[in-house]
Amino acid sequence: MLLGDDGGLRPTIFAEMSALATSSGAINLGQGFPDEDGPTEVLEAARQAITDGFNQYPPGTGMPVLRNAISAHQQRFYGLTVDPDREVLVTAGATEALAATILALTEKGDEVVTLEPFYDAYGAIVGLAGATHVTVPMRAPLFQPDPDELRAAITDRTRLILINNPHNPTGSVLPRETLQLIVELATKHDALIVTDEVYEHLVFDAPHIPVATLPGARARTITISSAGKTFNTTGWKIGWLTAPHAIVSSIVAVKQFLTFVNGAPFQPAIAVGLALPDSFFTGIAATLGRKHDLLSSGLTDAGFAVTRAQGGYFVVADAAPLGYDDAEEFCRALPGLAGVVGVPISAFVRQGNRAEYRSLVRFAYCKRESVLEEAVARLGALAR
Ligand SMILES: *Cc1c(COP(=O)(O)O)cnc(C)c1O
């Protein structure tokens, strides 16, 4: 089965690039997973939960201890009051939250508006739902959507506006004015907003602004997040969404037949993580920001034109100043040229729209500092 406008289910460039990294011994900055464990309290809590017998199916909406912790987290960081019993749903990662939401809330032919480039699952899930995918470009070098293009894309046919902030793959953060415009357009056209905020704690400049905190947004917003990126537990697949009760109920109706439930012993462990002191959360942002700066300055020194990331795991580098116009070709050659792997941004763009992203490469900096230092040293070969 092929999905999306150009077959979202074909073997991805990510698999190809990771295989290339393995076979060539190159440093893999293609895939966005951390190479270090997260907080020991969280890991220890999972071990303890297994010992304590939390090994059977948890409740369908998630264990109360985690739903309470998610609710307390929304209050503590954003001043949002969320009913832990009616407005929270624990999911198998943000991915299942996205899938269940889109499948539950769209009918065949409904339009789903996303920014472009977009996280690759979006296109595939919209395709699975039989909905129509409409995109608004985020162009280099700033990777911000144009307000008029947002106004043109969001119409009465729009059922969902799916945004991702901070943004993967570009590292951009949407300013408050853009979020406000999105809420305004959603209200005008009676669309729902789905906001993927998995990088909410990994912002480098200003505090994160959840869409749900904006005036008028709450009643039409489904907020999705995940423990993976915050606690370096991407393999645990504990995610969640918060939304008004009626919306949660329709999403649960789909979710029960996707995974039903997952990760029983990890749920209380993530509850421990969400209650860690503020210093943990400011610490992970500061550490990741330093890693960003290290890789970005190395890429700049190597001759790329780099757009500074404002959050998340990834930075975009333009290979055109180095004389490479085709990032796909360049990424295939890069392990041989410099012993490093990146991913072409075209992998996050639909076929017909790839031309203007042609020379752009995404690199992950969620790696140990020593790994990034070695990558930077190797990339120096491009400048010679
Ligand atoms: C990593 C990522 C996800 C997936 O999160 P999981 O919790 O692993 O399912 C979703 N959206 C974005 C933008 C991501 O980067």
Unreliable runs: 1-7
- The first-to-last residue Cα distance is 46 Å
Hetero compounds: pyridoxal-5'-phosphate
Beta-strand fraction estimate: 15-25%
- How many H/I helices? 13
- As a percent range, the share of helical residues equals 40-55%
**Overall pLDDT, averaged?**
96
- Major beta sheet, strand line-up: 2-8-7-6-5-3-4
Shape: globular
Compressed to H and E, one letter per element, the order equals HEHHEHEHEHEHEEHEHHHEEHEEEH
Instruction: Supply the helix-strand structural class.
Output: alpha/beta
Number of beta-strand segments: 13
How large is the radius of gyration?
A: 20 Å
Pfam family, one: Aminotran_1_2
Cofactor: pyridoxal 5'-phosphate
GO molecular function: kynurenine-oxoglutarate transaminase activity; pyridoxal phosphate binding
Domain Aminotransferase class I/classII large: 27-379
